[in-house]
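G.,

No rush on this.
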Amino acid sequence: MTFEPAESSSLPVPYMARTRAYYRALGYERDYVWATHAGVPFSPLSKSVSKLKLALVTTANPLSWEEGQPKSVWSGTTSQPPVALNTDDLAWDKDNTHTNDVETFLPIRALQGLVAAGELGSLSERYYGLPSEYSQHKTLNQDVPALQSLLVEDAVDAVMLVPL
């Protein structure tokens, strides 16, 4: 099988317009309001990467999650990385890729290798799951504070977000 790009492949994908049309087709009357955060709390690292304690956050779900079940912040142990996570309900290109290799979106073993090589200080004892929701209100007022509480409890220095 060969890949032949369309002639229009040099044009940008009208993602915003396509997303609006998609939601209208689903019956939503109001357009989705894209999140903006002028005051995002990013800051310079407080120490070198070789001394950092890093936390890993994914938007995948635990295998025990069942569709229709409410989503919430969750965590697992990095000492026993999962062999799989539930990704079926999330939006990703299921025609051209897969999520059979959990390391592609939850690179625990790769980060453990960096720790062993002395390039990364440590990996937090837990990795964390942050629900992929379309509700900015729930994300900002429920999920982020719950995740932040776990990160403070685990005394991490930095966070790597790996959305699916």
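When you get to it, here's the other one too:
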Amino acid sequence: MLWSSACELCGNSTRNSVSLCAACEKDLPFLLDVCKHCGIELQDSDGKTVCGQCVQKLPYVDYTISLLHYETPVDYMISELKYHQALSYASILGSLLLRKINNQKVTASYPDVLLPVPLHLKRLKKRGFNQSLEVARVLSKGLNIPINTSLVKRVINTQAQMDLNAQQRRKNMQGCFEIETKANKNSQLVEHIVIVDDVVTTASTVNELAKLLKDHGVKMVGVWSISRAILR
């Protein structure tokens, strides 16, 4: 018998490579024409590859690959992953992101390491796991790229970004990350790092991380995320 599983969204039997049936996977809100720097979907792109905001001021992030719009059912899947320990969604969404990365290589080489966005120790203890790390595990295994969880630490337990506007989000993230000097005192930082995140909204978090990395000599910083949201 051929192996099959139940679709995590509708419950129907599926032989898909991820635990989603073909119909549910087809209905996912995939991102199409996006800004190569920040990953936001371009409206009436007309061949353009950079959004107006990035034209005015380039972010510290060099490129972004995001998979899906943050809307139904993606918001449900990510919420279940983060707050109800539904780790199967990390496997499903990570596998779909891996497929897109393989099909949409934007640099001459893959990164040296993957850096999941760090959680503050208090939040990590409360949640029990880092959802970005769980997604990074799928990408690491599929691409044979190591994960580094000791490179950067989160030193400020920041207010949840979802409660803040764009300006407040940027201010909220300032100075919240530090290079972990003890773990890296005998090793030179690599040249190309990709930050792995679940949801990118204003990109304040990943941009703060990218700035820190570049201040310490990293040449190229990319972002791979499950979803790209728009702040309403």
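The longest helix spans residues 88-103. The chain is about 35% helix and 15% strand.

Enjoy the weekend,
O.
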